[in-house]
Amino acid sequence: MKLRIASALVVLSLIALAGIDRPLAQTDLPMAKPETVGVSSKRLERVKAYIQDYIDTNQIAGAVTLIARKGKVVHHEAQGWRYKEENQPMQKDTIFTLMSMTKPIVSTALMMLWEDGKFMLDDPISKFLPSYKNQMVLENGQLVKPARPVTIRHILTHTSGLGLTPLKPTGATEGTPATSAPPQPAARPTSLAEMVERAAQYPLHFQPGDRWEYGDSTDYVAVLVEKISGQSIDDFLRTRIFEPLGMRDTHYNVPREKVNRTSAVYRPLDNGKVELFRKPEFREPTFGRGIAGLNGTAGDYFKFTQMLLNGGEYNGHRLVGRMTVDMMFANHIGTGKPVYVRGNGYGFGLGGAVLTDPAKAPDALSIGTWSWGGAWGTVFWIDPVEELIPIMLIQITSYSHFNIRPLFSVVSSQAVVDSLADQKPKVMGYETPR
Length: 434
Known about the structure:
- The chain is α+β, with helices and mostly antiparallel strands.
- Helices cover 27% and strands 16% of the residues.
- It has 10 helices and 18 strands.
- It has helices at residues 2-18, 41-56, 102-115, 152-157, 192-198, 217-229, 233-245, 298-309, 322-329, 404-413, and strands at residues 62-69, 72-83, 88-89, 96-97, 137-139, 142-144, 265-268, 274-278, 295-296, 313-314, 317-318, 346-348, 353-355, 370-373, 379-382, 388-393, 426-427, 430-431.
- Helix 2 packs antiparallel against helix 10 (404-413) and helix 3 packs across helix 6.
């Protein structure tokens, strides 16, 4: 008996070291048989085959995919390699660098403060960042006065014209050519607030609200969270979002004890195959930002997206109100401002892209779908009409050479098989009277 117990302990220790027990970290996800929520098990097999083809052809090393419908996870799959060079398989709880999938979370944090009555969406950011009160706009090589102030709505929708670094030479006075850039400080900033304060000397790239430009706007969202709440963005997200939602593996700085769960990052070669770009290893902590920086798992990100799909509540914890989610999912930029990162058929809400025209969009989802992705291949969608959440996490430094992301929306949505007659009419995901 003693020998059996000792042997069992050894086996359990080896399992723990190998990380084989780690899927237990995801047992709190609301799993269900696909057919109970109108999804076909057989058609879901296409999702696994789709990802496996990219792995077999060495276009990606591995992936974790998750699909949920009507609040239930019907597909959660780990395929390929977390760290191929060391024969480390992908696990369901592998931690990925989320890059710009940080932005929707940080934007939600600011909307939580909006609900507290701390500001109006059309308040100028100079209300909280006084050094931005007299910014100029660079137009045709000259500095001109802004037609309107940069507002909080502008930074939430990437229509601000702001940038943390000058895109063109600056240093001119009003109405004169801009010919030289101001000297850059030698020391690296020690906080997000310091970084933003330094950038106040740079002119806007365009008149606020005139166009959509992907850039640094969400760093301004994060610094407003810090100034209004009195907490660092790291502390605010942890205490107000991650802990209530049970997002235990989402961090700006991955703890040393979790490094052996992080994914290696790969880069594509000219032949379309991948090679190692960055191996999993501990990195010294840095301050949190709004544009990127978070790391997390598919299971954790599902909890965040399901919270929004539920109208602001998940597992008994309400973060925002239903009408706030409606506001976030509305298109705030109108027409004629291409959201070029997402593709045709998209507008932009508060923190995420909004699908406005399925006939033009690359993704096979419904009007009102809210989504975003990260520079290293991660992507999610929240389809409020179908109550569908597809999430795909991969790690590749460029994905512009293939269509793995939009086609993932196709192989996810094709598994939905319930009849249109079973669906109630919805606006922004919420039931409306017939």
